[in-house]
Amino acid sequence: MGHSHSHSHSHGHSHHHHSTNNKKALLTAFILIAGFMVVEVIGGLVTNSLALLSDAGHMLSDAAALGLSFLAIKLGEKKATISKSFGYKRFEIIAAWVNGVTLLLISLYIFYEAYHRLLDPPEVQSLGMLTISVIGLIVNIIAAFILMSGDKDHNLNVRSAFLHVIGDLLGSVGAITAALLMYFFGWGIADPIASIIVAILVLISGWRVMKDSFHILMEGTPENLNPETIKNALLKIGQVSDVHDLHIWTITSGFPALSCHVVLTDDQGHDAVLKKAQGILHDEYGIEHSTIQVEGKTEGCPSHHGTCN
């Protein structure tokens, strides 16, 4: 027993360490990007540049994404209650979804504005625009590095924030290119074209975040876990003759849950099989939370519907 205790303790510790890192990374990046976004909005209005304003729109969604992600981790730490038995961990996914929808709306607005500007390119102060977009690029590079210190590979929130910042970075590059083209060649049309490119980036990242979070909200099976493989692994345990009613879903990023019914060949050895099954799920598939109903072959599945899916 001592062994399993120490294992869960050490595991919990590393998890906690990640979340502290994530919080710090998200908060720092949030302050940085929100601050610069204000500069960009003012700059876009003063220089009359849509590319700057669309980049600021992108940065607004970034700041929102980072703020929401930070809030989600904070809320996710709240203890579970009777009415919210999984705590507030799901909030993170709802936040990611809202964030995805916002991105889509912002990109549609930029397309609309850019279309009007293509028909009638306005006068843009390219030098001011160049200065601001260069600073924007530097701010984004710093933010990307900060987020890389977080757990961007496993946490959907940190990952979506990281993708935002990368998209932003490209947006700044677009604005810089447009400013140079206008400054040297007087191509006023470069401004709306650059903003359309940014809008496409915003659209793609918004769609991706929305799709991933919607899948989780619909209790979809995590993409990295194959139910068939897991079922076969459980069937390999001695005495197990059947596995049914298998469900795998995600509570929040990096928190997969599973429930299933396991049928034993004889009515003995219940605990040993349970221990083995939990061990396989935890050690091989990283499933922290599993609920397994063990059934003897004689009585069969006590389900009122006769068969389980």
From TrEMBL:
Subcellular location: Membrane
The organism's place on the tree of life at top rank: Bacteria
InterPro entries assigned to the protein according to its UniProt record, in alphabetical order: Cation_efflux, Cation_efflux_CTD, Cation_efflux_CTD_sf, Cation_efflux_TM, Cation_efflux_TMD_sf, CDF/SLC30A
Record Pfam families: Cation_efflux, ZT_dimer
Record key words, sorted: Ion transport, Membrane, Transmembrane, Transmembrane helix, Transport
KW Transmembrane helix (keyword) present: yes
Membrane topology, from the record: Multi-pass membrane protein
Domain annotation Cation efflux protein transmembrane: ranges: 27-218
Cation efflux protein cytoplasmic domain segment(s): 225-295
Transmembrane segments: 25-46, 52-73, 94-112, 124-149, 161-186, 192-210
Family: Belongs to the cation diffusion facilitator (CDF) transporter (TC 2.A.4) family. SLC30A subfamily.
NCBIfam families cross-referenced by the UniProt entry: CDF
PANTHER family: CATION EFFLUX PROTEIN/ ZINC TRANSPORTER, RE54080P-RELATED
Protein name in UniProt: Cation transporter
Protein species of origin: Cytobacillus gottheilii
